[in-house]
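Let us work through a complete example step by step.
Step 1: write down the sequence.
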Amino acid sequence: MSTLQVIAIWALFVVALPSALGALVALPFWLKGRIIVGNIAGSFAIILVIVILIWRQIGAYFAGQAACPGPECVSPESTVVTLLVMAGLSWLDTLFLLMLSGVVEDRRRQKHFDRSRL
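Step 2: predict the structure and record it as tokens.
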């Protein structure tokens, strides 16, 4: 598998999956007009997925360290950078969710706008 394929799969799991899951969790609340509750539920879903992925990465790091006691093993710096990137991407996922909620709220408001009161 090429490096580009690995990056694409990694991006799918770290960026697209949490965003899609957060939007699916928040959408029923948004459609009922409970925008803030939807944002909280969607953000919680994103954070939950990212925490699971971070714990998976930490487990892989410790398993790699146990299997390879020599100095040429995986460095802790690369693991820390990976974890920081995952945490940063979770903030971007949450920001995307909040922007999406604004779009949903605007469309809902336009749909229920009464022009007769102008």
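Step 3: interpret the result. The radius of gyration is 20 Å.
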